[in-house]
Predict the 3D structure of the following.
Amino acid sequence: MRLTDFDALTFDCYGTLIDWETGIFDALAPWLERHGVAAGAGEVLEAFAQRESKQQADTPDMVYPEVLARVHTALAEHWGISSSKSEAREFGASVGNWPAFADAPEALGILKEHFKLVILSNVDRTSFRASNDKLGVEFDAVFTAQDIGSYKPDPRNFAALVDGLKGLGVEAKRTLHTAQSLFHDHVPAGAAGLATAWINRRHDQEGWGATMPVAQAAQTD
C-alpha cells in the first residue's frame, strides 16, 4: 500500500489534528482546582471519555457544545462538586481554544497539493470553523456530527462519509481514513471498507486518554 493508491485523505480532527486532550484538560483544570479536586490529566481524560461517549450515544442529535456542557455537569456529579450553568456553557464553548498539533498545519498544506482533504468530525459546524482557522487549510468537504445527526463510532457517520466522497468523485477504495482514535475511527472505518492510517498521538503515554478503549483489536493499514 502506497499513498499514491489514494485520491483523498479523510481526517478525524480532534485528537488527530487538534490536540483535544490538552484543550480538554486545560479547560477543566482551573475549575477542578477551585473545588480542590487533585486529579491528574490521565484521570480527568478517562472520566471525560466515559461521560462524553455516553452522552453522545444517548443524545445523537445534540450539538457538541451542549454535549460538552452536559459532560461538565456529569463530571461535577462524579467528583461531588458544583457545576454552574455558566461554567458548563464555558466548557461547551471551549473547542475553539483547543490548540492544533504543531505539525498539522504544515503537513496539511503539503498534502493539499496531492490529495483531496476531507474532515469527518464529532463536532458542530461552528466549533469546527474555529479549529479550521488554526489548521490553515481549506478542506474539500467537512462532515460533522451536526450534519449527520449522530456521533462516531456510529456506522451512519461513515456511511455519510462514503456518500459524500461520491459527490467529490472519489471512490471509497481510493480513500485513506486518517485518525488517532481506534474507538471513534479505526474500528468503524474498517467496517465501512476504508483503508486507514493510524496517527498515534498517544504513543508515549499510557492508557486511552479521552477516548474509550476498544473491545477488539483494531486493524490499521
User: Anything to note?
Assistant: The mean pLDDT is 96. The first strand starts at residue 8 and ends at 11.
